[in-house]
Amino acid sequence: MIEKLIIQKTLRVPAGPAAAGDGTPVARQLDAALLDVGFAASRALLEHIGALAPAPAMDLAATVVSAVRELVGDHVQHNAYFIGFPHDVPDTVEFWVDRLRAAVLTGGGTATDAQLRDAVVAGGVNLLDLPAYGIYQHTYAQLLAAHDTLVTAAGDRLTVLHLGDAPEVEAARLYLALAGSPTPHGEADLAILGELAVACADGVQPAEIPVRENRAVLNGIRLVLGRPLVGVDTTTDVLRLACQVSGGDVSLATPTRFRAFRRPERRTLLAALNEVVAAHPDRLGDVARYAERWKRLGERLHPHEYGQWPHAQEVFTVARGQRRVHNLAGRAEAAIRAGAVGPAASVLSAAPGLLLRSADRLLRLASAAERATVVDAVTGALGSASGRVLLSLREHVDNRLTPASARMYASRSRTAWVGPDERPALPAALVAELSSLLDAAISARLPQWHRPLLVDPQVLDVALPLSGKATEGGFAVMPRGSRASVSGEVLRFFTYWRQASRRTDHDLSVLLLDDDFHSSGQVSWTNYRHDGVVHSGDVTDARNGATEFIDVPLTAGGRYVVPQVNIYAGESFDEVAESMFGYQTRARDQGGAPFDARTVRARSHLRGHGRVALPMVFARNERGWQAVWLHLYLPGRPSFNRVEENTFTTADRVRALMERRYLTVSYLVDRWRGRAEVTVWDGRPPDGPVTFVGIEAPENLPDGSEAITLGRLNEVIPR
User: Fold this and answer.
1) With helix as H, strand as E and coil as C, how does 156-179 read?
2) Which pLDDT score, from 0 to 100, does residue 111 have?
3) For residue 103, what is the enclosing H or E element?
4) 121 burial type by CB count under 10 A (0-12 exposed, 13-18 middle, 19+ buried)
5) Can you tell which superkingdom this protein's organism belongs to (predicted)?
6) Backbone phi, psi, residue 499, to 5°
7) From 64, 355, 537, 602, which residue has the greatest number of CB atoms within 10 Å?
8) Following CA atoms 432, 435, 437, 441 in sequence, which dihedral angle do they give, to the nearest 10 degrees?
9) Are 127 and 99 in contact (CB under 8 A)?
């Protein structure tokens, strides 16, 4: 399992010790199998497998193929309701009439087309209960037999797999990278970190764990294994840890039902609390924010039984409201309410990250006389706050010269709402001053590369991964706001879901928007065709898994193409056994089955908390089409969500995201130009070792080179 995770996360195949022999036939079979799913083994990888005995070579090859098929979504059967899709898809009304006629004939009656249409309009017929509706009428094998073999095209994806080091070395490297990441991880990477933490518990540990959620995951493993905790310096760290080992949310965005703790675990948690409060009594000010959770945790820890840790007992005294402690944010807020913005900035200087996140508000509220005081406080905080906070503020400032047409608020769970931007714009001179200060601070803290920097131009438009919360796990998935060019003649969207316990209907739809973000049409289960866009048919039961497709010719009208997945009925995205979204690009004459892994450009999990998923938007500009990642969810309704009913809310969010200026890799590359030799990659191998920054690592990098690829871009974020 660890080897498969390493392959999927790094595109490197661990080279474990195995008996030598002639595995050349297996290497040839692997090469062919990988090409069928859009991957290629590097020469070093093929040579390694070819030098193994047949049995271990076959075991390794099977692991590799299984890992990459799962990565691109080829581990399941993607059937389509209409067997001939994208051809032979009927007109929507004709299809419904045909289903109605089948229902009437089943009952032994007859009806004219007019009578059938009247029955639908009158609402007396449940269309989703009609015979054969929403259930596959053919097997997956019959679907494949009905389609010609895919004609390979020069533009088909080919992702290279590289030979790695020994499994334990690769596991340790990935563990240290995830644990020491300067940015928070999403749910998928936190789960990987947890698995690696168990495997690497006795190995080298990271020198620093900047992100507190990562500390909670590691300390959760250490608590269960009876190891000393690391990096616990706030009361909230202990609360996160308790949530982690209880299977809850370490981000504290949602409440956790705490489990019963063993006596040694209670002692460890209370001792850690006692040590934190004894060293920093002001940390009690953080308790009130999560008072209810502390009270619930106290019911599990029984702090009154442990008189040797009186400072830990103070935490629960504060949580119960028996003692009042003002925290830093509360003191600053009181100063702001009193009109003392300068003193508020001075108070917040004790928490540099909080000060920088409050900088916009302080500058807007400050009088002309106080503004210089706020700027001085911000300047003093730049050296202490994390690089992620500096970059976030730099991106924020870049969007504050004029009010936004719509302001979007995105939560950690990727839900979002849009409201008017009522903030006055910051003065241009102030924006320029802050930008210059931030540029200098960020440049001074950039990672140092000892080799020339070689940059793939395709990575320049990737948004900086400031938080894994703003993305999903999957293949070739980029952070929110990232842009990637789209080639080919046809976009093919697909969504797959498999219900866990009850009938579940997820609906793939496409909303078309014009230049002004107004609707210019939609394609869904209620409208199979529009302006060349074609739906594969509605599937309403996914006990064995179900897939829906939509084809969008890149000649279609509209400026923006917005695929979305609506939950019509049944289990949510985080309840189903499995769910995914992805897109393929094809030439018109390629043929092939509706799903072919070689044409998959990206595949993401769907695991958000809303009832409508908005994974991406595709935008047309003067250079062609671009894919822009959204990673958003709309709350929607408990059931019966349809694209027609969320057109306005979808368009608002798309507009807010498209008009926002995101900080991209290009920004950091510009900062590096003054500190290192930077060259844009033209596809030719460099003359000597380099540090390559790109979407994927090319095969022809010289020995001694290092590749910072899409999955490792958080490593370029200054600490």
Assistant:
1) CCCEEEEECCCHHHHHHHHHHHHH
2) 63
3) helix 92-106
4) exposed
5) Bacteria
6) -70, 155
7) 355
8) -160
9) yes
